């Protein structure tokens, strides 16, 4: 028999981002079925100047987003602990906008993301040299952690899926290590994102070699499925926990009230249905 629920889904979305389906209550129902204690909704934040507007909520929809999560929290009170979070994109110069946005409502978990596949980001930073783009990506992930705006850096090797034929881990490894040194100095956590199993390079984000580098630096890890539809909530958590163990981790984390909580991986595995 599974033990009492202890884990949270720490990365999921809503239809406001225009590429997810299902209301927060639908996600909470799956969390309950899979033996999760709670669900932290982290939809894509609004950005200024219409940046990547096609894949995120509009600024005027932010209050509606807060209300949607509050409605699900009330509906599942005593069953699933539904909390308000946010996935906030980073690029240099966006910090003042995010500082004001994050202050508008109490958030429980703020994911920092660099999305190299978004046309606005690519138009600004891609010069045609994939190796240079990979280097810049990891520099931006580290710079994001250094802002103090984020609790966790999401899917931290997402760049590998942009041009898989150009992804050579040994070539980029020194730049990853430099980024991880900077992130470790901030105390910011990093995510193991199970949706990577369904991307161009079908493995977790990050892969095992990068996880091992993270573990050696004492960087805590949060698990998230990056659910864009309800049935993805908690998906592949068992696999992610095994990957963490293989990398040398013994604990997994989540955030409530923007404070990191940690539980033993063995207990987390026993709690899942």
Can you offer a commentary on this structure?
Helix 5 (130-146) runs parallel beside helix 6. The strands form 3 sheets. Strands 4-5-6-7-8 form a 5-stranded parallel sheet, covered by helices on one side. Strands 1-2-3 form a 3-stranded parallel sheet. A two-stranded antiparallel sheet has the order 9-10. It has a single domain (8-271), classed as Alpha-Beta Barrel (TIM Barrel), CATH 3.20.20.140. The protein has helices spanning 24-33, 62-75, 95-102, 119-125, 130-146, 169-186, 208-216, 237-246, 265-271; strands at residues 8-9, 38-41, 81-84, 86-89, 110-113, 152-153, 189-193, 221-224, 251-256, 259-264. With 273 residues, it is of the alpha/beta class.
Largest sheet: 5 strands, parallel
Structural class of the secondary elements? alpha/beta
CATH topology: TIM Barrel
- Name the CATH homologous superfamily: Metal-dependent hydrolases
Percent in strands:
15-25%
Q: Sum up the overall morphology in one term.
A: globular
CATH class: Alpha Beta
> What is the count of helical runs?
9
Poorly predicted runs: none
Helix content: 25-40%
Mean pLDDT: 98
Major sheet: order of its strands? 4-5-6-7-8
Q: Terminal Cα separation, in Å?
A: 9 Å
Order of helix and strand elements from N to C terminus: EHEHEEHEHHEHEHEHEEH
* CATH architecture group name: Alpha-Beta Barrel
According to DSSP, the number of beta strands is 10
* Rg calculated over all Cα atoms: 17 Å
Number of domains: 1
């Amino acid at each position: 028999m599974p033990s009492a629920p202890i884990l949270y889904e720490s990365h999921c979305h809503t239809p406001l981002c225009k590429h997810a389906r299902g209301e927060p209550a639908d996600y909470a129902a799956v969390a309950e079925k899979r033996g999760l204690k709670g669900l932290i909704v982290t939809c894509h934040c609004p950005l200024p100047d219409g940046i990547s507007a096609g894949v995120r909520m509009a600024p005027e929809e932010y209050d509606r987003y807060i209300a949607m999560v509050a409605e699900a929290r009330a509906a599942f009170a005593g069953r699933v602990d539904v909390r308000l979070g946010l996935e906030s994109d980073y690029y240099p110069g966006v910090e003042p906008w995010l500082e004001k946005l994050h202050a508008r409502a109490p958030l429980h978990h703020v994911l920092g993301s660099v999305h190299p596949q978004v046309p606005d980001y690519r138009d600004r930073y891609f010069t045609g040299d994939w190796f240079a783009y990979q280097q810049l990506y990891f520099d931006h992930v580290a710079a994001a952690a250094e802002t103090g705006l984020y609790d966790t850096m999401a899917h931290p090797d997402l760049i590998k899926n942009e041009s898989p034929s150009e992804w050579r881990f040994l070539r980029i490894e020194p730049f990853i290590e430099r980024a991880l040194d900077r992130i470790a100095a901030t105390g910011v956590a990093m995510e193991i994102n199970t949706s990577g199993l369904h991307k161009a390079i079908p493995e977790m984000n990050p892969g095992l070699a990068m996880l091992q580098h993270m573990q050696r630096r004492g960087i805590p890890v949060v698990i998230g499925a990056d659910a864009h539809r309800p049935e993805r909530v908690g998906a592949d958590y068992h696999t992610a926990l095994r990957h963490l163990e293989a990398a040398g981790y013994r604990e997994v984390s989540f955030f409530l009230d923007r404070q990191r909580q940690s539980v033993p991986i063995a207990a987390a595995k026993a709690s899942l249905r």
